[in-house]
Amino acid sequence: MEIDLDHLRSWIGRTETAADLVTVRLANGLQATLGDAPLAEGDRAPPAIQWCLAPPIVAAAEIGPDGHPARGGFLPPVPLPRRMWAGGSLRFHAPILVGDRVERRSRIADVTVKAGRSGSLCFVAVDHEYVTSRGLAVEERHDIVYRDAATGPARTAPVETPAPQWRESVTADPVLLFRYSALTFNGHRIHYDRRYAMEVEGYEGLVVHGPLQATLLLRLAGRVKERPPASFSFRGVNPLFDGADFSVAAAETADGLRLWTARASGEATMIADAVWA
C-alpha cells in the first residue's frame, strides 16, 4: 500500500487537549484488575493510571472495522490497517492522586516509515503531558506502529534477558483482558473477539494489551524498590496471547532495573528499563 509520507508528516505539531477525573471507582477498578488493595480519595493513584484517563470516545458509527475510532482527526490517517502500541517512555515528576482532575496535553512529534520483515511499518510518535492542579505530573512519549494487513503477527528475533531476581506469574485469561479494555475504553477487537483476532489479524489467540504489560512491569518496579521510578521506558518485542500464565520479571542493572514479560516458554514479549534518580 502506497504511503504519502509528506502528507502524513504534515500532522507533526498538531495538538490536542483532553481532561478526566481520577475517580475512586476508576482507581479501584484498576487496583482490582491488578489484584491490589482498594484506594480512597487523596491516596496516590496507581502509577499507570494515566492510560485509563480521557480515552477517545466516538459514536458507534465512527468506529473502524478493527474497533478503533476511524482514521483521521488528531492522529494522521495512516493507510496501513493494523495499529499496535509499540512502546514508549515515561518520566514522573509528581504523583497523581485519587480525586485529581488531570489534563492531558498531546502533540504529534514525528511520523516515519520503515521496511520491516512483515512489510511497511509506519511509526507515529506522540508526546503527552499530564498536568494536575499541582503542576506537571507525568511526561510520556507514546510510539504507535501501523503495519500491513495480511502478514500475520509481527515478530522479532528472540531477545535475551538476564536471570530474573524477581518474578511473578499472571494468568492471561479473557476476563483480565476484558476488564483492562473496559478500564481504558479500548475497543480494539484483538483483545476480546477471538475469531477476529485469529481469522482476520492472524494471531494465535486474544492479544494481551501492551499498556497492560507495561503497567504490570511498572508495578513490579515500584514493589521491588518500594517507590516508583523516576523514568520508565518499554517496548514490545513479540505478541503475548491469552490461554496460559505469563511471567513479569526483573533484574538489577547499574542504573536501576531491567524488566520484562515473557511467555511460559520463556520468550520475552516486552522489555523495559526503570531508573531511580
UniProtKB/TrEMBL annotation:
Key words of the record: Lyase
High-level lineage: Bacteria, Pseudomonadati, Pseudomonadota, Alphaproteobacteria, Hyphomicrobiales
Protein name: 3-methylfumaryl-CoA hydratase
Keyword Lyase: yes
Keyword Lyase: yes
Residue ranges annotated for the FAS1-like dehydratase domain, each copy included: 49-139
Listed Pfam families: FAS1_DH_region
Domain of life: Bacteria
Molecular function per GO: (3R)-hydroxyacyl-[acyl-carrier-protein] dehydratase activity
InterPro entries: FAS1-like_DH_region, HotDog_dom_sf, Mitochondrial_HTD2
EC number(s) given by UniProt: 4.2.1.153
